[in-house]
From TrEMBL:
Name of the protein in question: ATP-dependent DNA helicase
Pfam families: Pif1_2B_dom (PF21530)
Tree of life domain: Eukaryota
Upper taxonomic lineage: Eukaryota, Viridiplantae, Streptophyta, Embryophyta, Tracheophyta
Chain ranges of the DNA helicase Pif1-like 2B domain: 91-137
Amino acid sequence: MIDIPKDLLISQCTDPIDSIVTEVYGTTFKDLNDPIFFQERAILCPTNEDVDVVNKYMLDQLKGEERIYLSSDSIDPADLNSRDDSVFTPDFLNSIKTSGLPNHYLRLRIGTPVMLIRNIDPNDGLCNGTRLQIIQLANHILQAKVITGTRVGEKVWLHRLLLSPTDSKLQGNFH
């Protein structure tokens, strides 16, 4: 059993997600586009399902333009591991929720703080765990401002990637 100090507990609440978000970010985070505000604040969740719940709540609070990005629902035909591609239907691919692969449905707004879940360019500081804030939404590319690491304040472009799952039960390159 783990003892959590009383000063770290949020008690007497009717909505635990609202209470956690308010405790960490206050009530004005939805009006802030200042990356410094998000540098030293984060909510750590024990499961990806909890991450989804907190992310949905916070995005519902943010103002401004919103875009939905969907995965492209296919496996690289050149991939030798996907010989029986009839198993990999779009519905199946859309339902995959595993470590190392983003969900099929990605909802973003200008000002959203995000964290990279892949090494994109480690030599340039864009690696797993780098935190950024979205500043521009386009069809297949995002512009973000780096808010942690050695490149704080720099603007970077993030584009779609060909992904290979880290889960050995799922083999193939995903588009």
